[in-house]
Amino acid sequence: MALLTGIIKQAQELLLRQQKFACKEITMRQQKCALLLLAMMVLIAMINMKDHVGLYYNSLTQETLVRKNHSYYKWVPGELAAMKKFKADQKGIPTVAPGWVYNKTAADLFRKQIKHGNHIKNGDFLTTQETAPLDFILKRYQSETTLMNVSREILHRFPKTSPFKAKVIKTCSVVGNGGILKGSGCGKEIDASGFIFRCNMAPMNKVYLKDIGKSTSLITLNPDMIRWKYNSFKNKTKSENVAAFVRDLSTYGNSYLWIPAFFSQDYVEVTFAAHQALREINHTNNEIIIPHPDFIKSAQSYWSQNGLNRKRATTGLYLVSAAIQICEEMHLYGYWPFHSDRNYRRLTEHYFDNALPGKSHSVPDVFK
Fold this sequence. Notes:
sialyltransferase cstii, chain A; alpha/beta; two-stranded antiparallel sheet
């Protein structure tokens, strides 16, 4: 609106200049030309504004991704709303580090509460041939609606057993994607852990390694990303998209690929398409693993009972819920609820972009 107002003002000034030039008499022809120019300028401005709103700028890759029908990207909030939140956050940010120390009793209690009410054992939070055997009824993560009965064809898509079953790792790093990581220098500390969780195939280009580390043990992938970035591996573009997928995965080395498939039938289809695509080229560096419905429901229940006011927990919270089952000690990075750091530096939504913090993650609620 500010842009349109400015253009209208310029057009009005043009009319005034024409009036003065014509000795305070403006001809009908001049008036029509000025109005036509005004209409053209407004039209151009509207097109530019539409393009601006519909584009997402990634400062790491220097590429512009068009948001059309893909729900994977959220709308960037307005500058005024973001600045208001930034100023409000400055009043509530703790200026002194809390000095947290590992509390084994609290960690054990957390593990127990996460598993309460289901049959999931330590490290057995995945969908495997043991936890979802032949003829097992798989239900949606967020309801009792049946998604499928496990047939022999489906069964072979699951690992025989969980690679984390009864596994205990001394220390783990769970790395979120928050803008607080930018300039943090946490990379070496993150890499020193025995197991490293990362979210949503976040970029790991050289420029950020000092802040985020370079090692990965498990990386998550949102099924929506398979649709918009790899076109669900459909036939016409399958080979080039599979090649792009493998190239992107190479960033994370030999790591597990966590895909939450059972939120919907569409998610199941694209997840199985990814599994099939990797299988066809005998790609074994990144085994696809799917969290079990019982685990997701248990984790969601725990966080809801502890003040999380949203229908679905974030990817980061699900990773925390899984990590606590296989890690004796867990360290979180990139989980910061404010739009500002302790030095009142304004933060972006992620360490790898210039996007303003949005509402989709409800980070302050998660932090509490």
